[in-house]
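Our consortium's second objective concerns turning raw sequence data into structural hypotheses that experimental partners can test. To show how far this objective has progressed, the report includes one record in full. It was chosen at random from the queue rather than selected for favorable results. The single chain below, 554 residues long, was entered without modification.
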Amino acid sequence: MQAPVMVLQQNTQREQGRKAQLGNVTAAKAIADIVRTTLGPRSMLKMLLDANGSIVLTNDGNAILREIDVTHPAAKSMIELSRTQDEEVGDGTTSVIILAGELLYAAVPFLEQQYHPTVIVRGYIKALEDAVKTVDDISFPIEIKNRDQMLKLVQSCIGTKFTNRFGTIISELALDAVLCVAADIGNGKTEVDIKKYAKIEKLPGGSFDDCTVLKGVMFSKDVVLPGRMKRKIENPRILLMDCPLEYKKGENQTNVEISKEEDWAALLKAEEEWIEQMCKSIIQFKPDLVVTEKGLSDLAAVFFARAGVTAIRRLRKTDNNRIARASGATIVHRASEIKESDIGTGAGLFEVKKVGDEYFTYIVDCKEPKACSVVLRGASKDVLNEVERNLHDAMGVARNVVQDPRLVPGGGAVEMAIAKALQDKASAIEGTESLPYLAVAEALEVIPRTLAQNCGANVIRTLTKLRAQHADGNDTFGIDGNLGTVVDMKVLGVWEPYAVKVQTFKTAIESATLLLRIDDIVSGITRKSAGPGAPKGPQVEDGENVDSERQLAE
């Protein structure tokens, strides 16, 4: 008898075939069960201790999974889903995890009956195509300029969050911020870059009602010479720079040999004259405010103060970009290149205010601000962090609607309508794919079922009523997440953006198909050590991980 041949290293773990597939399904289901109770307006909060020992209180799917440390590769892949969903559309992070977990769980009976994963995947992909068509049929357009309708839409997204108790204030902040930064780029398309141009500033203290969207920009800086420079200017002429306004230092070490004392004085005078000349070239354009991203020497500050110019230094690049967009200024790279057209005149007021112990600069009342700052006030940092997460979701929803102004009914109505449509079409599908196709229809019912569970309703009775309504052709009926009753979403006014729903289905089904096609998991692989050309020498382990790359001792 031939001795067994070892191909992989001895410490390598390997799972193959059905064992690997069922292991992936179990891991994905475990992740889905973590966030299941955070769906809907009656959702529970999760309290997490992060690495620094601080507490995170949230019911945002992405925020919860981001803090969880997992080892299983399939579980890591599931967590990645919610991050992708958050970056793409900003909302639906919990739904996508629950749906993906349920779709994988629905495939278990087929795997146990020796179905080939490719057959299951084909059925799932077919179901996805039909699901997207059904969402297209149910969706209807919305008028972006209709503020009441837009507020209702954003409010239905916020309805499941912690900030729901504060009324419509978060919805109004999100809508104002998104409409402020929306820019028409031609071809009937709108660009809404909330990451770059809508900055959220959290200031602990004050009342929640003090939260506001500024028609301009705010940042944590004071003027360079507080006693001598103005802290309030109306209709300022703003000059933005990203070069240092101080004497040029040598690129690398510079040695100067001086034989006479007068030469030293001449050297200092040359420095002063160079700075004075540079300041004069700036002052001739009569700016009221000069902002630079780099340093500004004390001497330059004195010249500016004499000329009645206010200066701010060492500003972040992102803040500088937002000021440029809000005030209409152009960022200049060299003092000698300034033109009159580079001066921004779009701002109505420049003011430095003291909030708590810090000074904050406001450049507000802009004529056409295409950038804004959202100021959040609240009792504590924990509350402000949760409000910021909720506001991010709300802004994502508002952005999606501005870019694709179509709505679908919420409350699990869409999922139920798709399930009904798939069940009707399943009989027309030939071969073994029809059963996985039908399994997608059953898996989609997990969303209305979870909504009913989370508000303590009788799940079986509620779902039966909902199925009966959809069988009669009432596509807009869903579950009221507060009371657990079956109601018409048109009457209740709960809507969701088309983009969020379609992205949720695509992400969940595609990730489920990806995980189902894995039939071999190899773990414990060591990294390759340095190549044959590497210098020999004493080598040390770095202690934490035996499999880590071997390093040369210093």
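The partners drew two points from this record. Residues 533-554 have pLDDT under 50 and may be disordered. The longest strand covers residues 198-204. Both points have been shared with the crystallography group to help prioritize constructs.
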